[in-house]
Amino acid sequence: MKDFEYFAPKTVEEALSLLSQHREEAKMIAGGQSMLVTMRQGLLAPENLIDIKGISALDYINFNEKEGLRIGALTTHRAIEKSPIIQKHYEVLSEMEVNLATIQTRNWGTIGGNLCHGDPAGDPAPVLITLNAMLKVNRVGQERIVAMENFSKDFLEVDLGPDEMLTEIQVPIPKPHTGCAHEKLMQMQGDSGIIGNAVSITLNPTNGVCEEARIVLSNVSSVPFRARKAESRLIGKVLNDDLLAEAGQAASEEPDPNSDMHATAEYRREMVKVFVRRTAKRALERAKRGLIS
Ligand SMILES: Cc1cc2nc3c(=O)[nH]c(=O)nc-3n(C[C@H](O)[C@H](O)[C@H](O)COP(=O)(O)OP(=O)(O)OC[C@H]3O[C@@H](n4cnc5c(N)ncnc54)[C@H](O)[C@@H]3O)c2cc1C
Hints:
The chain is α+β, with helices and mostly antiparallel strands. It folds into three domains: 5-51, Uridine Diphospho-n-acetylenolpyruvylglucosamine Reductase, domain 2 (2-Layer Sandwich); 56-171, Uridine Diphospho-n-acetylenolpyruvylglucosamine Reductase, domain 3, CATH 3.30.465.10; 178-288, Enolase-like, domain 1. The protein is 36% helix and 24% strand.
């Protein structure tokens, strides 16, 4: 690994100032779980490493009934999994975290690092897209909000300038009668998903018609993939098993996945078909119970 200058800012302002000073020659490190692998593989060799893990002001989970959920970028996966607020109001986020890696990894890895790494196999992004989440991004003296759905640009590439950092994940209150679920295909519990998917379904409580649906797939494209044709099979209908199977079929035909050592493209498509049907069924059951997650 190439030598680098190491900085350990204790505030967001300090971190942003270092970023603006060093720009392209600097990279941030949070938990380091992806960053160190990338550096060891020689894919990145920053001259300056800005270690933000000590910025305690970015480690929080807040919730109120009006604005919804706010998660600081340095919150660990384990804190999200175990948060009583999240388990109560956004059960799907906690459910997703249980299947993300091992407890050791979840204890140290951060939600911000996961999203900024931009791995299309990542689990949080599809769930956050179905929940219509927004991301707060800061640079010195400026702040902007970007939809999670637009954040991933390409394989390991996200919408962040060299002087910008992600500071907060904002999740609105889901509409009433919305159900959301996440599942992924793993060889062993906690493995990276061969494919994954998150589904949200919103029902009209008077006639049971599906008013909104979001289906987002992981590891079938260079970015999280929104299966819009599959969504359109559900919207405006009273859902049953046949329609869920139709949505699964449509979702399997939309992306163009790669073959690799874990699975062929054909197998990935087949699994998308099965998993979308299955996950949509769980999302529908939750929507029927009037739960918001
Ligand atoms: C063994 C193992 C198994 C894993 N399994 C899974 C899995 O099943 N599913 C899954 O989704 N993930 C998995 N991961 C990834 C893990 O979840 C971490 O979340 C992820 O590696 C990044 O978190 P980190 O805090 O370590 O980020 P780092 O590695 O420190 O950073 C990752 C990238 O994000 C940038 N960055 C970090 N924080 C910020 C910020 N606030 N603003 C701007 N840029 C930032 C860094 O510069 C770097 O480019 C696994 C990791 C390991 C090591």
